[in-house]
Amino acid sequence: MFEDYIALLDKIDRFVERVQAKYPQHIECKPACWYCCVSDISVWRVEFDRIKQFVKDNPTPAKLKEDAEHAKCPFLGNNELCSIYQARPMVCRLWGIPLIFDSETVELSEILAGSFYKKGHIDSEGSKKIFICCPRNFATDQSIEELSITDTINADLVLTTLAAINHVYCEKTGQSPEERLSITKLLDSRDLT
Fold this sequence. Notes:
By secondary structure, this protein is α+β, with helices and mostly antiparallel strands. The chain has 6 helices and 6 strands, in the order αβααβαββαβαβ. It has a 4-stranded mixed β-sheet. It is globular.
């Protein structure tokens, strides 16, 4: 039931691995880095149900934060590692690495939320793109100049593809494709039955 979604995640993961291998000196994202692990992330139904299935099928390998810092993801364990890493949603796989958005399709206020680095970019066709990534990655203008457009993810394309996968999934399962769900709702035991 999750085949198309998992195939998209695998494609993104392979791309991220390639970029990390190509630019190890500019990528600070490593295990136990929780800079981007914020609370109350909302996800599409297909993502929510996949995480829910993972939590049901896998005992939590790390103790979840008991004090539940409101600024951190509830699935961030006391060891600062993600307890749902294999099933983490798309936003967790994308955020931090170099992303581009069409400047006409995204509001700057959305990009600037969370103080992510941004920089205008001109692609080979001359259309304006907005480049963002974690401020810890490609932190200087010089490091950004080393980055090739082929080493960025077109966020518009990925998010449109994810929305289409979610729509098909919701048609099959009889759920609303427009609904976004907070992953904190997964901690409610009633949602795990």
